[in-house]
């Protein structure tokens, strides 16, 4: 049984991310790829409320406030098939709570309610942010007394992208993206995020990159992060960042969703400094000169194309507790 000082509800938030650069190495024997990437947390936050249970069950539910509740993928016939967010042990937030419970050697149950504000299957790490927020919320709910660094270490067992939303900010990522070097930044960068109507499988996009390289006779090299880009991000030099942004997964993502290329062209025509696909896609991100330019760009895109264009800024802070209420 819990003592009286335990919380009954804890809500935590964790940011989505974009990759301002993503370089991909050759396919490894274990089926993964080494990468060199620049993670950049943005001001779209997943929220997870952890509520204490009297039994040992873990449950998952989506909040009615969620902006995104499912994604759509093309089937063999070219139609769109809806893919719902899993509300069972296949959800990364569920796995985060279960892993933390094992590490703490406790049998507490918890109801997890997720408010999704990051595009689903959009290359922005929404599922990883859910897991990060669940770790922070459950850690507080169960009075674990863990540091941010300890939570990030546990997060690494859930996936390569999960530690970053714990830390937030900007970071260089190596290995499979799990070896993080936080960057000291000053100032902000402003972007416009354009969610796609379709979803893309991350392993599928990596596989398409391997196929494209094989067909073209290109031997993948060990990936490296551009030092000039790192300096530009740290100093919030938007114009320099625009010249150095890169994504090896952009071409295979566009090969599967050709409309992404057109959307980036429209963004450039409407005043964006640069546009690339975020991560494995299919979300498009457009870099703007400043906050006012990002807001104006989003308005123009929505008027011209009827897309949902979301102005965001970064580097955003890492996972944190929003509210905690006693039982």
From TrEMBL:
Coiled coil: none annotated. Residues 230-303 form the GHMP kinase C-terminal domain. GO terms for biological process: isopentenyl diphosphate biosynthetic process, methylerythritol 4-phosphate pathway; terpenoid biosynthetic process. Keywords: ATP-binding, Isoprene biosynthesis, Kinase, Nucleotide-binding, Transferase. This is 4-diphosphocytidyl-2-C-methyl-D-erythritol kinase. ATP binds at residues 119-129. GO terms for molecular function: 4-(cytidine 5'-diphospho)-2-C-methyl-D-erythritol kinase activity; ATP binding. The active site is at residues 17, 161. It comes from the Bacteria. The gene is ispE. InterPro entries: GHMP_kinase_C_dom, GHMP_kinase_C_sf, GHMP_kinase_N_dom, IspE, Ribosomal_Su5_D2-typ_SF, Ribsml_uS5_D2-typ_fold_subgr. Its EC number is 2.7.1.148. Residues 91-169 form the GHMP kinase N-terminal domain. Pfam families: GHMP_kinases_C (PF08544), GHMP_kinases_N (PF00288). It is an enzyme of class 2 (transferase).
């Amino acid at each position: 049984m819990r003592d009286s000082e335990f919380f009954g509800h804890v809500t935590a938030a964790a940011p989505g991310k974009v990759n301002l650069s993503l370089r991909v190495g050759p396919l490894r024997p274990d089926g993964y790829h080494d990468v060199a990437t620049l993670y950049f947390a943005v001001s779209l936050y997943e929220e997870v409320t952890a509520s204490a249970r009297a039994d040992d069950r873990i449950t998952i539910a989506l909040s009615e406030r969620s902006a995104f509740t499912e994604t759509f993928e093309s089937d063999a016939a070219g139609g769109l098939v809806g893919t719902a967010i899993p509300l069972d042990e296949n959800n990364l937030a569920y796995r985060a709570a279960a892993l933390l419970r094992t590490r703490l050697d406790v049998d507490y149950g918890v109801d997890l309610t997720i408010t999704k504000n990051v595009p689903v299957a959009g290359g922005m790490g929404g599922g990883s942010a859910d897991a990060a927020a669940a770790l922070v919320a459950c850690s507080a709910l169960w009075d674990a007394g863990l540091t941010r660094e300890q939570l990030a270490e546990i997060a690494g067992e859930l996936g390569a992208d999960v530690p970053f939303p714990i830390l937030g900010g900007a970071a260089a990522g190596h290995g499979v993206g799990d070896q993080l070097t936080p960057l000291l930044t000053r100032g902000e960068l402003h972007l416009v995020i354009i969610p796609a109507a379709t979803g893309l499988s991350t392993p599928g996009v990596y596989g398409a990159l391997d196929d494209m390289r094989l067909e073209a006779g290109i031997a993948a090299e060990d990936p490296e992060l551009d030092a000039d880009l790192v300096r530009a991000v740290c100093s919030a030099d938007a114009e320099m960042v625009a010249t150095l942004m890169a994504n090896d997964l952009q071409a295979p993502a566009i090969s599967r969703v050709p409309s992404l290329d057109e959307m980036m062209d429209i963004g450039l025509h409407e005043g964006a400094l640069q546009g690339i696909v975020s991560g494995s896609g299919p979300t498009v991100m457009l870099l703007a000169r400043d906050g006012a330019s990002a807001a104006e760009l989003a308005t123009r895109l929505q008027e011209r194309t009827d897309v949902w264009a979301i102005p965001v800024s970064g580097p955003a802070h890492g996972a944190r507790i929003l509210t905690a209420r006693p039982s």
